[in-house]
Automatic annotation (TrEMBL):
This is Transposase. One of its GO terms (biological process) is DNA transposition. InterPro entries: Transposase_8, Trp_repressor/repl_initiator, WH-like_DNA-bd_sf. It comes from the Bacteria. GO terms for molecular function: sequence-specific DNA binding; transposase activity.
């Protein structure tokens, strides 16, 4: 059996991206806090903008 992937709500993605864009967190800090890869945050940020 394969490993089930985590799913993230659109609201959480938006909250995380806004925290990075506002300077509240760096991408690295947000990645550690939310247990997400930095590359995923970059992807979400690109989609958001």
């Amino acid at each position: 059996m394969g490993k089930q992937r985590k799913t993230w709500s659109p609201e959480l993605k938006e909250q995380l991206v806004l925290a990075v864009l506002s300077g509240e967190h760096t991408i690295a800090e947000a990645a550690r806090e939310y247990e997400v890869s930095e590359s995923l945050i970059h992807t979400w940020r690109a989609q958001f903008l």
